[in-house]
Design goal:
The protein is of the alpha+beta class. The protein contains 2 helices and 4 strands. The protein is 40% helix and 33% strand. The protein has a 4-stranded antiparallel beta sheet, with helices on one face.
Length: 88
C-alpha cells in the first residue's frame, strides 16, 4: 500500500510540474489580448512589462502617456481552466 501512495504522489507531482511549465512557457497571445481589453476597452493599450509564473500572469500596459495599468490573469483552477483577467 505505501508503494502505491508513493507512486501516485510522484506521478501527481510530475503532472503538476508539467502543467506549471506549460503555464509559463506556452503561447500567451490570447491572454495578452484579453488583458489589453481589461486594461483599456476604449483605447489601445501597449504592453510594457509581463511576468509569468505557474499560477498567474502579471501584465503592465501603458494606456496614456503617463498612465500604467497592471492586469493580473489567473486560470479558473490553479493549473487548468480558462484565464480570467482583473485589475488588482
Amino acid at each position: 500500500m505505501p508503494g502505491i501512495i508513493r507512486r501516485s504522489l510522484s506521478i501527481l507531482l510530475i503532472v503538476l510540474s508539467i502543467l506549471g511549465l506549460l503555464n509559463v512557457y506556452s503561447d500567451n497571445s490570447e491572454v495578452i489580448k484579453m488583458a489589453s481589453r481589461v486594461a483599456c476597452s476604449a483605447c489601445e493599450a501597449r504592453l510594457i512589462q509581463s511576468g509569468r509564473s505557474p499560477i498567474a500572469q502579471t501584465l503592465t500596459f501603458q494606456t496614456a502617456p503617463a498612465t500604467l495599468v497592471v492586469v493580473e490573469c489567473k486560470r479558473e483552477f490553479i493549473f487548468l481552466g480558462d484565464y480570467a483577467c482583473v485589475i488588482p
